[in-house]
């Protein structure tokens, strides 16, 4: 009996400690949406419809794309670091290829290998130029042909930029000696995830995702599945399914119940021990939640902006069209994938032209810029500024050619 009481007390203490750790500024996001819905009832309808749209038109397709990509990655067990080491003369195009892959894993590997002295400055520039980060999943899920074209463009521009800058500056430009960076890289690659893996919630997440995929397909071909439910159609069951699924992603993200994608280097480094790497399902859930949150933010910014101001944001962007490639390139300099997902979402909604998307895709470095800034800040800043040159050329070239 005493042992049972002690175990119960310990369980309560663990739950209390978990609760204290889970509370953060992120919780204010869903709470703020609920308060806004309560204060402005008409806004509540917009929030429900927008979150449902983000989930059914984006999240389920992103999850499917992630399953395919991460599944192939595990199936073929590609060792990116070994690939770079075995082909020194081809490091620049190989780095560009790894950067063009959706997500930030390949780019993070190249950054750490640059600090370790295994690849040159040209490879660093190539990977930062070619990578589109997690925004690539969104583009690939919604417009796969456009996504593939952007990936190919990123690879080509990254390879050319890498070779040119390596010819100008040399392989070892702005790099510290290998022994100065190894300790920091080793420590960075073993950073623990700060999230908690709650399998029960992951199961609920998957249960919502399955019918979400089923309903997302007819929505994608411009059908209205709410009407299939007869007398229940007035309750909009499919819309509510999307809203609940989107809120599940938002709540898991806000309570740190899933880790940010690519933010732990161990998750992205194929050299780590198998037991140190997250499961396929965990990575899919984590990354889908992250993308979903930023897509919801972009959708709500657009819809609520129109509602409260009455402005036609599409017309506003059209007026400032000549500046949109420049603004998109400047946004690309921001570290992280969140702002880049917003740019991609604005393109998918028709608010900004293809030229802005291309400029942002070339200039943005995704999450790979975080370890680069931590391990080689001067080289990271110079390399990311260099990516702005081809980004402006491509962005404005597309603007004048495509309109």
TrEMBL record:
Pfam families: ArsP_2. The chain crosses the membrane at residues 53-72, 92-112, 119-141, 147-168, 203-221, 241-259, 280-302, 314-334, 341-359, 379-402. Keywords: Membrane, Transmembrane, Transmembrane helix. This is Manganese transporter. It comes from Spectribacter hydrogenoxidans.
